[in-house]
């Protein structure tokens, strides 16, 4: 039996309801057990102010995942994980128990009704770029270039590594 080739995906995680730090840690643990996948690197946890929203600060992280799941299958698995943590989509940018975003999948560009890759606005968010470049300093974002080169554009956004 041959194994399927693995693609590399990057997943952004965030939470600001309940115990967000423990939730993000638990979600990272879940990713390590996801079928047809194996965990890569996990970033540190970061605290960031909500963007285009209200509520408490978020705890964010980025995870690298090596997977043979197709992008749509991986997105469905991430949405299932959000549901397991009680995610309710009451309105756009509402506070959340867990948010899992498929940021990148190899260097694919996908634009469907249910999935956009690279994730829209990831290049404008310090809470994505800082943890992403921590674990993948040379990562390239299709259509935008090196993630590291985008950091000066988000330098004014409030974000801090959690000890």
Q: Helices and strands: which structural class? A: alpha+beta
Spans of at least 5 consecutive residues with low confidence: none
Question: Any guess at the CATH architecture?
Answer: 2-Layer Sandwich
Query: What is the helix/strand order?
Result: EHEEEHEEEHEEHE
| Record field, number of beta strands | 10
Number of helices: 4
Mean pLDDT: 92
Total number of domains? 1
Q: Outline the biggest β-sheet.
A: 6 strands, antiparallel
Tell me roughly what share of residues is in helical segments. 10-25%
Beta percentage is 25-35%
Q: Report the radius of gyration as a whole number of Å.
A: 15 Å
What is the class in the CATH system?
Answer: Alpha Beta
* Through-space gap between termini: 44 Å
Architecture blueprint of SSEs:
Elements: E1 7-15, H1 20-31, E2 37-42, E3 46-48, E4 58-67, H2 71-84, E5 99-105, E6 110-111, E7 116-117, H3 126-135, E8 140-141, E9 145-146, H4 147-150, E10 159-161
Antiparallel strand pairs: 1-4, 1-5, 2-4, 3-4, 3-10, 6-7, 8-9
How would you describe this protein?
- This protein is of the alpha+beta class and 163 residues long.
- The chain has a single domain, classed as 7,8-Dihydro-6-hydroxymethylpterin-pyrophosphokinase HPPK (Alpha-Beta Plaits, 2-Layer Sandwich), CATH 3.30.70.560.
- It is 25% helix and 28% strand.
- The protein is built from four helices and ten strands, in the order E-H-E-E-E-H-E-E-E-H-E-E-H-E.
- The protein has helices at 20-31, 71-84, 126-135, 147-150; strands spanning 7-15, 37-42, 46-48, 58-67, 99-105, 110-111, 116-117, 140-141, 145-146, 159-161.
- Strands 1, 2, 3, 4, 5 and 10 form a six-stranded antiparallel β-sheet that branches.
- A hairpin with a 3-residue loop joins strand 8 (140-141) and strand 9 (145-146).
- The protein is globular and about 40 Å long.
